[in-house]
């Protein structure tokens, strides 16, 4: 066989005409048997071994990263906001997307180690463990609250669980432990999957635990929409945040989501018991605090604790925003699940608002049947009494977490009827018992406390000027009511007393802040400046912003003065202010304060510059923010989503084109197409100057040419007229090109 092949190849090399090259397209393509080619071409042809393409490994994490995780999340937000009312049945496909798991890993690592981890920094072993966790979730092998067996561990967890002693294993299994790292990952993936679904469905009346909404939004809504209301119902439903029955949560979840995998995961997270270490009162009493506690040295990858100013500000959290739900092993899913359950209450209240609305034609503002159109500024509603049978009956409602506020414009009997219906609804839907004490009805004149701000009514007497018949200008004194949103100074004193910054009620006396005793003066002042800046922002929409911030500044300044007096043995606050100035910006170590040694060291950068305390005078505090709040307000990210969906709709493009055509305009894209079409048809190169002149002189003809080029059904009758116009244009362009160089030379 080998001999026959050698003879055959030798004959081919000597006379290549044996094989008809023209009749074989493969050989004619490569020209293997031309006389110029050598014999190695034939050798390469017969010794060719097919190259086997490498099949991508489905278990390789690198092959699963087809898209960026942020783009996948953006696609989910757009889809759900485009169709907010559809029932979602296939969320498992998003659980399979490995990009979401990598994004969840980056977010959870940022919370664990205190810094963002880019995708390139994730190790190969971590990616494989993450893939194993994803497969375990999809195969129903994942268990919430695991203590010893993990699919993936935190980057800072260096514990070898296989070599632990029995005593340590028992302690891990029987005492309270932080949530496992893999549980946080699954919670994050579920949160990223469910949040866009329900954010497109949630009511505009809820403001807690939602992106782009906070307590400031509630205060601005109250200032705008609650003016003119007499009776208020303030309800505390925070018992729902402590936990509901699993069946109620799952039924509320299945109202919009019908994916069995996701429902089972959340149900297991709610049902699986959380191991909590038992509390023994006898051992608790025996334990004594050490007189001198050692300072803890943080590891390199360990996140730093909250600074003192932030910890102090958290002490000022109002009652309505203090409680954060935590249900079973749901973690960050708990606030979202609480909003899903309470959304039914929001929808029920929206229906009651429409039922309660009864317009009156004699009303100044709300006199339309729909109740949406409003006349005038609602923060200054009317200059007539706001009650009586001839006035419009109206109601509004807001919810922040588990606390609700209902404003009613009408008789108290209507408020009592609504309270009774609300008690029955909560008993039937959430199985919680409410009474009249938990839902008190209060009049606006007594002041309603909500989010540490007091809502009250101020009576004003403005001068009304209007033009009567005959053109005569009349000025009259009017009577009006104005809704006031005022920060509660009493509540502010209570919070300062809780943080040990002062004592006394009628005459608050600042107390020294001994937690900052070992810190430098520059560091202490910087910490308190950040705290004061945060307080200024918190009371941004309060009518008495200047007063309450000035009080906070007085307490902080007095507390630091007493601290420095004890630290530097200056005996009194007066001596501290004398050396360190009113804002404590001068160094207190030096007796003279303005010593040349300190100035020289500061100039050379060898000592810290000391920033004085801010807002030590009333004139330095900013004014209250009275920026008008729109009635159809939405967060910025929702505005962007709605605008993107609107522009992505083909109907919007058609409307824009029809509007441009009606006004006789041409879009830039069509104008460029017209120029290219003219160039191809006329085959003449036009410079910029000639283009401008021809465009200016023959705009109507070009527009007609554009319209004719855009129509598919071309009319053959106008062919001769068009050719004549084109010849006229061409002759004009030729004449212009011939005359232009001569003009330039002249």
TrEMBL record:
Pfam families the UniProt entry points to = Intron_maturas2
Signal peptide from the UniProt entry: none
Which Gene Ontology cellular-component terms appear in the entry?
Answer: mitochondrion
**Ranges where the record places region Disordered:** 709-746
Q: Name one GO biological process term.
A: mRNA processing
- Enumerate the spans annotated as Domain X domain: 485-589
InterPro entries per the record? Answer: DNA/RNA_pol_sf (IPR043502), Domain_X (IPR024937), GrpII_Intron_Splice-Mob/Def (IPR051083)
Q: Mind telling me which PANTHER family this protein's record contains?
A: NUCLEAR INTRON MATURASE 1, MITOCHONDRIAL-RELATED, NUCLEAR INTRON MATURASE 2, MITOCHONDRIAL
Q: What is this protein called?
A: Nuclear intron maturase 2, mitochondrial-like
């Amino acid at each position: 066989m080998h001999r026959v092949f050698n003879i055959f190849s030798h004959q081919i090399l000597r006379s290549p005409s044996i094989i008809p090259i023209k009749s074989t397209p493969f050989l004619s393509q490569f020209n293997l048997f031309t006389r110029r080619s050598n014999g190695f071409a034939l050798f390469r042809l017969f010794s060719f071994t097919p190259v086997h393409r490498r099949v991508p490994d489905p278990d390789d994490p690198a092959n699963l990263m087809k898209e960026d995780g942020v783009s996948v999340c953006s696609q989910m937000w757009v889809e759900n906001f485009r169709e907010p009312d559809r029932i979602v049945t296939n969320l498992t496909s998003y659980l399979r997307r490995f990009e979401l798991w990598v994004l969840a890993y980056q977010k959870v690592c940022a919370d664990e180690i205190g810094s963002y981890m880019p995708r390139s920094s994730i190790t190969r072993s971590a990616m494989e463990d993450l893939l194993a966790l994803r497969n375990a979730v999809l195969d129903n092998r994942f268990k919430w609250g695991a203590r010893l067996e993990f699919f993936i561990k935190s980057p800072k967890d260096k514990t070898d669980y296989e070599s632990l002693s029995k005593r340590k294993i028992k302690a891990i299994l029987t005492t309270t432990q932080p949530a496992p790292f893999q549980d946080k990952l699954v919670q994050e993936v579920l949160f990223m999957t469910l949040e866009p679904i329900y954010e497109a469905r949630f009511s505009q009346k809820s403001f807690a635990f939602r992106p782009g909404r906070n307590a400031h939004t509630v205060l601005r809504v109250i200032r705008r929409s609650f003016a003119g209301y007499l009776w208020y119902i303030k309800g505390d439903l925070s018992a729902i945040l402590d936990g509901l029955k699993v069946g109620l949560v799952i039924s509320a979840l299945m109202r919009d989501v019908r994916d069995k995998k996701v429902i089972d995961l959340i149900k297991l997270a709610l049902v699986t018991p959380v191991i909590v270490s038992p509390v023994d009162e006898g051992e608790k009493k025996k334990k004594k605090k050490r007189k001198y506690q050692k300072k803890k040295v943080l590891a390199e990858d360990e996140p730093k604790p909250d600074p003192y100013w932030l910890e102090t500000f958290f002490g000022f959290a109002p009652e309505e925003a203090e409680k954060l739900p935590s249900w079973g092993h749901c973690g960050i899913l708990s606030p979202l699940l609480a909003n899903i359950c309470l959304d039914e209450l929001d929808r029920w209240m929206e229906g009651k608002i429409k039922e309660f609305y009864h317009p009156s034609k004699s009303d100044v503002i709300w006199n339309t049947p729909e109740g949406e159109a409003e006349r005038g500024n609602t923060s200054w509603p009317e200059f007539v009494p706001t009650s009586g049978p001839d006035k419009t009956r109206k109601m509004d409602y807001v919810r922040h977490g588990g606390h609700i506020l209902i404003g009613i414009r009408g008789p108290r009997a209507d408020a009592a009827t609504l309270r009774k219906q609300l008690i029955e609804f909560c008993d039937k839907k959430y199985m919680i018992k409410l009474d009249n004490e938990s839902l008190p009805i209060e009049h606006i004149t007594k002041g309603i406390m909500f989010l540490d701000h007091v809502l009250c009514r101020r009576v004003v007497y403005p001068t009304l000027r209007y033009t009567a018949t005959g053109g005569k200008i009349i000025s009259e004194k009017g009577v009006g009511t104005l809704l006031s949103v005022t920060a509660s100074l009493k509540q502010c004193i209570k919070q300062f007393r809780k943080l040990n910054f002062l004592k006394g009620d009628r005459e608050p006396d600042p107390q020294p802040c001994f937690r900052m005793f070992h810190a430098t003066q520059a560091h202490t002042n910087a910490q308190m400046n950040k705290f004061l800046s945060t307080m200024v922002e918190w009371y941004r929409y309060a009518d008495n912003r200047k007063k309450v911030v000035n009080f906070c500044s007085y307490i902080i300044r007095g507390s630091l003065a007493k601290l420095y007096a004890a630290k530097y043995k200056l005996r009194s606050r007066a001596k501290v202010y004398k050396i360190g100035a009113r804002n404590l910006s001068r160094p207190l170590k030096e007796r003279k304060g303005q010593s040349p040694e300190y100035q020289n060291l500061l100039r050379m950068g060898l000592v810290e510059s000391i920033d004085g305390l801010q807002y030590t005078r009333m004139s330095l505090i900013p004014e209250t923010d009275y920026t008008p709040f729109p009635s159809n307000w939405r967060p910025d990210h929702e505005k962007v989503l709605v605008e993107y969906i609107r522009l992505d709709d083909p109907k919007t493009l058609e409307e824009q084109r029809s509007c441009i055509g009606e006004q006789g305009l041409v879009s830039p894209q069509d104008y460029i197409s017209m120029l290219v079409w003219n160039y191809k048809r006329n085959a003449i190169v036009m410079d910029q100057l000639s283009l401008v002149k021809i465009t200016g002189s023959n705009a109507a003809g070009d527009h007609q040419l554009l319209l004719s080029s855009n129509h598919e059904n071309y009319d053959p009758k106008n062919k001769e007229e068009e050719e004549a116009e084109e010849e006229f244009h061409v002759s004009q362009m030729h004449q212009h090109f011939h005359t232009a160089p001569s003009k330039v030379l002249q």
